[in-house]
Model the fold of this input.
Amino acid sequence: MPGSADILVAIVDDDRAVLDLETYFALGSPTASGSRFTGGRFERLGGGGGHAQTKDRFVADDLIAVTLLSVQVPPPIAIQILEGDLGRDLSAQLRLISTDIAIGAEGADRLLDNGGPANKAWGLLKACDGVGWVTAGKLLARKRPKLIPVYDHVVQCVRRSPDSFWLWLHRHLADEETGLRAALHRLRRRANVPADISDLRILDVAVWMRHRNDHVPWGVRRRRARIAAARCSRRVSQASTGQESPGNRSKPRFRSRSEARSSPLKILTEGTSPGCRIAEPVAA
Done:
């Protein structure tokens, strides 16, 4: 099976990625209102999270921006972020992170690793009631879009790696041999993506758009597994009592994976592929 870095490069280099970016960000449209994807305004709402006057503190625009990505900060936590000690603690970590440093650049790993300010800020947010790892990451991606990727269950499913996604992605973007950074630059030119949209966001949107319709959430797969197990148990019981007949046997469904191995993109078309294994990450 191709490695997940190969899958990312294949997605980014595929012609479909150009159309997906144009659709998501309403590129070529006079305003972003031409897109049905509200996330196309995530970076730009209110001047962006990295605006000079508010780059080191969360403001109301940041909390609204994450709702465009289908998550919401619980009201009590929102108040703590905007007016309480939590907001001051987060600001202390943000001040240690330049808005110019990008993931894959020298020194970025120290910011992302355990004990680094980005990881500490992520931990502060994730520890709050009602703020999971997805929402915590999206809040930080709003403030540091060059360094912190938008990361959710769909993207996690595609990348198929058990370690920290931030550090994993940093290594692949820092290593020119993977071709991931070069592929992102090519996609930016082909789709004519504006400069204020980061490479990370280009990657996220390309991957998310590619896999969103095929991704099967963990809860759905768990329910399907329970149903399948119950059916299997009934068949075993019927067979043991001589009640099974050819009419109530289900045909086995086997499919060769040789074709899937030939291209990284083939795996993403399978829907319930082994890639749909969602578990909370050890770290962001």
About this structure: The longest helix spans residues 218-240. The chain has one domain: 4-211. The chain is about 50% helix and 0% strand. The radius of gyration is 22 Å.
